[in-house]
């Protein structure tokens, strides 16, 4: 009601926003279930996400400044319905036993899709440390990392089995120095 412009003759002309109500409905975050925050210098998750966005099922945090796995675990703990997490391009710290020991039993449990392409991961053994937490994982994207330690012998006929990931349906290891 207070929106108006002054015409060239000095009169006030009211402004009507056509479709404003429809646009406002689209802007309601509680109706969204997918969030994309790409290339926005996000480096930490913090607390309070559950109150604001507990309904999120898909989160795209590609090309940010995330690096600590405890932040990834924190995010998944706060969003129990999170199914898809895209972290491409974040230079993640190397996964170790000490890091996964601080995960809660619920960390990463609901994830069906985890994308870690080009995350500077240097070892397949480190990915296997995440396996006990990825009980629902169906798609795991690990392209453009370094998995030269994948357990394959020199003899082509003898390939050692990789254990775990029983629910996995898609594994992307393209350009991983295998």
Fold and architecture overview:
By secondary structure, the chain is of the alpha/beta class. It has helices at 20-26, 49-53, 69-78, 97-101, 124-130, and strands at 4-6, 12-14, 34-36, 58-60, 84-86, 113-115, 139-141, 170-172. A six-stranded parallel beta sheet has the order 3-4-5-6-7-8, with no helix packed on it. The radius of gyration is 22 Å and the shape is elongated. The model has no long low-confidence stretch (mean pLDDT 87).
Per the principal axes of the C-alpha atoms, what is the gross shape? elongated
Low-confidence stretches: none
Assembly annotation: single chain
Strand share of the residues? 5-15%
Helix and strand pattern: EEHEHEHEHEHEE
Number of strands: 8
Helical stretch count? 5
Main sheet properties: 6 strands, parallel
The residue-averaged pLDDT reads 87
Strand numbers in spatial order across the main sheet:
3-4-5-6-7-8
Keywords:
about 180 residues; alpha/beta; two-stranded antiparallel sheet; about 20% helix
């Amino acid at each position: 009601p207070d929106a108006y412009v002054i015409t060239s003759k000095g009169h006030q002309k009211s402004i009507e926003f056509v479709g404003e109500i429809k646009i406002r409905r689209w802007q309601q975050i509680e109706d969204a279930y997918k969030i994309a925050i790409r290339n926005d210098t996000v480096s930490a998750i913090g607390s309070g996400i559950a109150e604001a966005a507990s309904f999120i099922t898909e989160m795209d945090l590609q090309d940010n400044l995330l690096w600590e796995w405890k932040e990834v675990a924190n995010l998944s703990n706060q969003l129990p319905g999170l199914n898809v997490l895209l972290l491409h391009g974040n230079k993640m710290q190397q996964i170790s036993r000490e890091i996964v020991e601080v995960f809660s039993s619920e960390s990463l449990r609901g994830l069906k899709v985890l994308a870690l392409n080009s995350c500077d991961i240097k070892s397949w053994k480190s990915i296997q440390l995440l396996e006990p937490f990825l009980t629902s994982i169906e798609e795991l994207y690990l392209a453009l990392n370094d998995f030269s330690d994948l357990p394959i012998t020199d003899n082509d006929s003898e390939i050692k089995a990789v254990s775990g990931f029983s629910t996995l349906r898609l594994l992307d290891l393209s350009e991983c120095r295998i």
